[in-house]
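Below is how a single chain appears once it has passed through the pipeline. First comes the sequence as given, then the structure the pipeline wrote out for it. We keep one example in the README because the format questions we get most often are answered faster by looking than by reading.
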Amino acid sequence: MNGNRRKLLLTMEELADMLGLSRGTVYPIVMSGRIASIKIGKSRRVPISAAEEYIQELLQEQGAERA
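Resulting structure:
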C-alpha cells in the first residue's frame, strides 16, 4: 500500500489511540451508535469521518454547556 494514502477505516485500537482514550472507553461509545461503525466479517471498523464528526459533536455540546 502506498505510504501517502490516508486510512479510511480505523480499528477500535486505532480509534482509541486517535482520541487518546482506552479501547474500553471507546468500545461502548461505538456500540451505542454515538460513533458510526461498520462490520466487515467479524471485525468492526470506524470511518475516520465518523470519528471526526464525533469530536465536532462533543465540541458543540460542550460549547452549549458553557453558554
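Strands lie at 9-10, 38-40, 43-47.

See the next section for the split statistics.
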